[in-house]
Amino acid sequence: MICRVKRKFASVQAIPPLTVIPVPPWRDGNDGEPLQKFNKIFKTGKPVRNPFIVRIALVACLAWAGASLPAETITFGFEAGMITNVLMQDNVLLEEAPDLNRGACGSLKWSGASAAEGRVLWQLNSAFAKHIPPGGTITRAALKFVNINAASATTGSVYRVLKPWTETATTWNQRDVFNYEAWDAPGMRIGKDLAAAPFIKDQALPAVAVSGMHEFDITSELRFWMNSPSNNFGIAFIAAPNAPEIHWGDANRGAGNENEMPRLEIEFSPAAAPKTRNQ
């Protein structure tokens, strides 16, 4: 999977904003989570090797100036040539091909057609929490899919997934074909494989042209995953009965199609600056 991480800092008073430059590749640590190395550089171009020193210095300066830490936005996107391990994974379960794994197919089919449903799975590795500083609060998380075919208006819901699955071993019938572990029911059963109720219910998606975008607010799920990473099995997008078919680009579209890949924007407020003695 190829991925880019951007971070934006809102400028505060006369303090210069930080620019974060991701240095590939991601690597698995002993704990199985991906690790990322950053060089944080001020506008002067001088590297600051320890990101915690940067934050401590920023907190101290803001406290002295009587200001609060700036809000920040992290964008998990995709960029050609930056190879990573699984930061995000996705899959599509097809009713008409119940034993076919489509984790690397290049598109995510979402459909409510009778006997031809397409249900989309998406998961963010819990290591994303390492990008949120201690005490930080997620204020918004928007998952955006790019439409790769013209689509009619449609409707669907998004559920929390309750059981583990993988991009390379999950089908309509099986959540793990290699270990012969089936879903509670083909296509996932609501209340068993998925939460009993969706956290996004009957969201209307507008008709879009090619390269149009559909956006989902998954703020509540990221907060849940931050507090309970062991229960992060991702989310499932299920179209309403007989809803028109749409196709989103997925994370395997290839180096030449980075603009068609899904992206996630996370906005968060850092921890409040400590009070000075005079406050």
Gap from first CA to last CA: 49 Å
Task: List SSEs in N-to-C order.
Answer: EEEEHEEEEEEEEEEHEEE
Judged by helices, strands and strand pairing, the structural class is mainly beta
Biggest sheet strand line-up: 1-5-17-9-14
Round the Cα radius of gyration to an integer and report it: 20 Å
Integer average pLDDT: 74
Strand fraction: 35-45%
Main beta-sheet annotation: 5 strands, antiparallel
Shape: globular
Tell me how many strands there are. 17
Count every helix, treating DSSP H or I runs of 4 or more residues as helices.
2
| Number of structural units classed as domains | 2
Percent of residues in helices: under 10%
Low-confidence stretches: 1-5, 9-66, 79-86
List its traits:
five-stranded antiparallel sheet, disordered N terminus, 2 domains, mainly beta, 279 residues, 35% strand, 2 helices
